[in-house]
């Protein structure tokens, strides 16, 4: 199964030339948390249990759940690839369109994958996979609706990779035992290079996942940085405020360019354009990289610019 992703800046540079690119193809926060100098131990020593426990406590407070329900992993994608091999393979219903790594990983692990246009179509599945809010269209479902779905499937995976600005959407504070929540660190905090994520689930499943991931699956720098970043509520509040306003501003710019907003999240927006290939190429000539999708010749997704210079370049490119 094709594993099409954003972030393929090499392809853009090969076609449109090297230079000062603005990568809006990923939905990763372009105002990252400012990383301070790290301790020597973070770089030189193997990660300690104490360092992992410290991150778990801070992350649990952020998610609003008990620490024994939280497991740090080497990126949410690592969990997406491991979980299909820990659960008994059967029929999986995956919300569609959505993040394509879910269906690809399930198929590779021997699951029968059925695309599902909505939650009702998932009922009766051995496993249901929902991305909330959804990528790329920003559809969202209430925790009550997802808990109702959990009663009608054997297992439910809810990918909340873009939910940090929307705690009202999260299942973390009241997590049924057959529900697995995935969270990303790199997107909201803008530090995707750390390859850090979290699995929230019942303790017995987390024990199995911990065993499958092996020792030291999360490095010392990631543990130290994330522990400090997730405790910085002032930065988080400012970031949510910025993106709440900036995402609306991006919609206004897109509408002025003749694009129709289709939805999105705080960190990215999706647009219906006259011709996604032509519009992506137009922005690429200004060294602004965006995301289009193999299943639509009109959809284009843009991350939110991070500073005035980026906004000015995007505005000029859209008016060109």
From TrEMBL:
InterPro entries: Aminotransferase_I/II_large (IPR004839), CobD (IPR005860), NHTrfase_class1_PyrdxlP-BS (IPR004838), PyrdxlP-dep_Trfase (IPR015424), PyrdxlP-dep_Trfase_major (IPR015421), PyrdxlP-dep_Trfase_small (IPR015422)
Any Gene Ontology biological process: cobalamin biosynthetic process
Catalyzed chemical reaction(s): O-phospho-L-threonine + H(+) = (R)-1-aminopropan-2-yl phosphate + CO2
Lyase found in the keyword field: yes
Domain of life: Bacteria
Cofactors, names only: pyridoxal 5'-phosphate
Pathway: Cofactor biosynthesis; adenosylcobalamin biosynthesis
Keyword Glycoprotein: no
Record EC number: 4.1.1.81
Function description: Decarboxylates L-threonine-O-3-phosphate to yield (R)-1-amino-2-propanol O-2-phosphate, the precursor for the linkage between the nucleotide loop and the corrin ring in cobalamin.
Protein name in the entry: threonine-phosphate decarboxylase
Family matches, as PROSITE patterns: AA_TRANSFER_CLASS_1 (PS00105)
Record-linked Pfam families: Aminotran_1_2
Coiled-coil segments: none
Native organism taxonomy: Bacteria, Pseudomonadati, Pseudomonadota, Alphaproteobacteria, Rhodobacterales
Gene Ontology molecular function: pyridoxal phosphate binding; threonine-phosphate decarboxylase activity
Keywords of the record: Cobalamin biosynthesis, Lyase, Pyridoxal phosphate
SUPFAM superfamilies in UniProt: PLP-dependent transferases
Domain Aminotransferase class I/classII large stretches: 46-317
Enzyme class: lyase
């Amino acid at each position: 199964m094709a594993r099409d992703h954003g972030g393929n800046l090499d392809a853009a540079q090969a076609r449109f030339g090297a230079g000062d690119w603005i990568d809006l193809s990923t939905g990763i926060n372009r105002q990252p948390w400012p990383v301070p100098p790290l301790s020597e131990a973070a770089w030189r020593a193997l990660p300690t249990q104490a360092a992992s426990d410290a991150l778990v406590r801070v992350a649990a407070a952020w998610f609003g759940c008990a620490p024994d329900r939280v497991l740090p992993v080497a990126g949410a994608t690592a969990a997406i690839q491991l979980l299909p091999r820990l659960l008994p393979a059967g029929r999986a219903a995956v919300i569609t369109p959505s993040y394509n790594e879910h269906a690809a990983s399930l198929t590779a692990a021997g699951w029968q994958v059925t695309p599902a246009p909505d939650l009702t179509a998932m009922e009766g599945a051995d496993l249901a996979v929902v991305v909330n809010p959804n990528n790329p269209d920003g559809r969202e479902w209430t925790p009550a609706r997802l808990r109702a779905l959990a009663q009608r499937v054997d297992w439910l995976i809810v990918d909340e990779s873009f939910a940090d600005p929307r705690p009202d959407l999260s299942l973390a504070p009241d997590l049924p035992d057959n529900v697995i929540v995935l969270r990303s660190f790199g997107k909201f905090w803008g530090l995707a290079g750390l390859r850090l994520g979290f699995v929230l689930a019942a303790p017995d499943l987390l024990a199995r996942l911990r065993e499958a991931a092996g020792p030291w699956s999360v490095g010392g720098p990631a543990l130290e940085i994330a522990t400090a970043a997730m405790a910085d509520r002032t930065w988080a509040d400012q970031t949510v405020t910025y993106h709440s306003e900036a995402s609306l501003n991006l919609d206004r710019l897109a509408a002025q360019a003749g694009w129709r907003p289709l939805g999105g999240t705080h960190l990215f927006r999706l647009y219906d354009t006259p011709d996604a290939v032509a519009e992506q190429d137009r922005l690429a000539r200004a060294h602004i990289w965006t995301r289009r999708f193999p299943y639509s010749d009109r959809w284009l997704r843009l991350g939110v610019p991070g500073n005035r210079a980026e906004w000015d370049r995007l505005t000029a490119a859209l008016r060109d």
